Amino acid sequence: xxxxxxxxxxxxxxxxxxxxxxxxxxxxxxxxxxxxxxxxxxxxxxxxxxxxxxxxxxxxxxxxxxxxxxxxxxxxxxxxxxxxxxxxxxxxxxxxxxxxxx
Length: 102
What we know:
The chain has 4 helices and 2 strands; from the N terminus they run αββααα. The protein has 102 residues and is α+β, with helices and mostly antiparallel strands.
């Protein structure tokens, strides 16, 4: 499988191996198509000559460490004294109720 992914990457540099997914067509009785694992060989799947594979471009892949960095470093909303006092917030002006009263 890795050789097939590398060959496709050489032909189209935009499609690096992390973006690629190959599947076998759905067979009768199967709920889903079988996704081919990159670590396995094509011979492990008992494919006959002329067998069809389906390719899907998964799009740009973001590493989970980068994703966590952006997620956890986002701006947190400021704490409001009104939340503890059960006073409703003014959503339209994005200001807390106690600041409007002053």
